[in-house]
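Go through this:
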Amino acid sequence: MEKYKVGDVVKGIVTGFEKYGVFLSFEDDYVGLIHISELSEHFVKDVTNYANLNDEIPCVIIEVDEEAKRLKCSIKNTEYAYRKDLEIDHGFAPLKKQLPIWMDEKIREYNLDKKI
């Protein structure tokens, strides 16, 4: 019987980071990778924003290599990723907050200049 199956939600221990993803260890000497594209629906600038070394994190298995004891995993669309995404400013999100303020300032400046 296979220990791990595609679609299973499992917990892995974070063992390392590369620019392209997060490495995990699992029971029975299995290792895993959460590729950067499987961390979030948003742009991911830094994979270390999603976990710390030795954290135990939940993930979904998306591919199993039984022979090599390797798992490809994902946290995209999970509660864990959702909580992490709330902590991180993604892409243009900071601009979205600031843009209305800048526009109001410029409109006020324009209206003041127009009165002179």
